[in-house]
Automatic annotation (TrEMBL):
Pathway: Cofactor biosynthesis; molybdopterin biosynthesis. Residues 15-159 form the MoaB/Mog domain. This is Molybdenum cofactor biosynthesis protein B. May be involved in the biosynthesis of molybdopterin. It comes from Nannocystis pusilla. The keyword Secreted does not apply.
Amino acid sequence: MTTGPAREFIPVHVAVLTVSDTRTVETDTSGRLAVDRLTEAGHRVIRRAIVRDDREDIRAALQGFIDDPEVEVVITTGGTGVTPRDVTPEALAPLVTKPIPGFGELFRWLSFAEIGTSTIQSRAEAALCGTTYVFLLPGSTGAVRTAFDKILLQQLDHRHRPCNFVKLLPRIRGERPG
């Protein structure tokens, strides 16, 4: 890790979307873990929703978060597997401005150490949609924990060097660096 002048923590505004036909706010352990990890890190979870495993419902929820000028990051849990009901990546696809393939690649590489070859069943991915980052995570709490503890908490921390997603937000929005 590169050193340099200290940077201040910059909280981001996040929406958490759970994709499930069966979970409620009370039983949504993966969504709760995402909210907990984000708030413990100092970020602000400003929206949270649960939608059923339906491509149009998922896309509408994602589009609403992407269009919301307060939301900078969207984290989803669920719907990234290979069964017919797993359609979160397909719901996101038309909304993508720039794919971020390294996220899914790194997630599966890290998951391999935990679950072996079963990691190939994950279609976790990330993308920039307009000026909003979107991360699609599997629905298991173990997968959410891996994504946060080994990737997202660092990449959503402005202090992380040599680079991170938060540092790029002003440029993505077309703002002049301050």
